[in-house]
Amino acid sequence: MRALSVGLLMTVLVGLCANPQAPVYRVIIDPGHGGEDTGAIGLYGIIEKELVLQIAHLIAIQAVSFPAMRVILTRTEDRHISREERLKIAQMGDLFISLHADFSYDARVRGMRAQIATGAGASSEKLAELLLQHSTQAAKALNLGVARAPLWLRRMKIPAVQLYLGYLTNPEEARKLSQISYQTTLAKAILAAVQAFLATDAQR
Ligand SMILES: [Zn+2]
After folding, report:
1. How far is the CA of 18 from the centre of ligand 1 (A)?
2. The 95-102 sheet, strands edge to edge
3. Ligand 1: centre distance to CA 20 (Å)
4. Helix axis angle, 48-62 relative to 180-201, nearest 10°?
5. What is the chain's mean pLDDT, rounded?
6. CA atoms within 13 A on the CB side of 15
7. Residue range 31-43: mean pLDDT, rounded
8. Which residue, 91, 52, 51, is CA-closest to 72?
9. 100 C-alpha to center of ligand 1: Å?
């Protein structure tokens, strides 16, 4: 995980600065957990907080190819941030995607799923559906669908989705999630989903 550090972050920063005058859609990517909050601990020593941070960095790097988007990360390192901080950063954005991975005591359980807040609007639902469609197709993973839950995301005024990128307790998914090629596939799929969302539902 450490391999993706200063060099790649510099690439992101250079990319973000490349075209400051162009109109941009601000995509907030929120790597869940951080610091003492590790999130799920999975097979092969995978730690959720590290995995989602790595995928968030890959999204920021890949976003250089999408000039209409500016990706903003809620955290760029392994540190704890409060929901208040995450909300504050979300206020700078046009949409919000929180990245997570799943845990189950049953190793057979696998697939990707999304959650939106109870009472969230149709735009959050559309974004969640597109994220799952693109991610599961690209990753050849099972689509477990979108569920509504009483999430803290209800405080967001922008389309907001909690995206679960697979089960760290399923041997096959955990093995794939540990590979940078698979992580990059997911990063690209998430950006493609956002692009599709902008094409269909930019007006929230
Ligand atoms: Zn999580």
Report:
1. 32
2. 69-73, 25-31, 95-102, 160-167, 112-117, 143-149
3. 33
4. 60
5. 90
6. 23
7. 96
8. 91
9. 4
Which residue, among 163, 92, 103, has the nearest Cα to 129 in the 3D structure?
163
CATH architecture of the region 23-199: 3-Layer(aba) Sandwich (3.40)
Please give the single-letter amino acid code of residue 9.
L
Pairing of strands 112-117, 160-167: antiparallel
Domain residue spans in the chain?
23-199
pTM over cut 0.85? yes
Written in H, E and C, the secondary structure of 51-66 is HHHHHHHHHHHHHHHC
Which range (104-108, 151-155, 164-168, 186-190) has the least confidence? 151-155
Residue of higher predicted confidence among 15 and 104: 104
Distance 22 CA to ligand 1 centre (A): 34
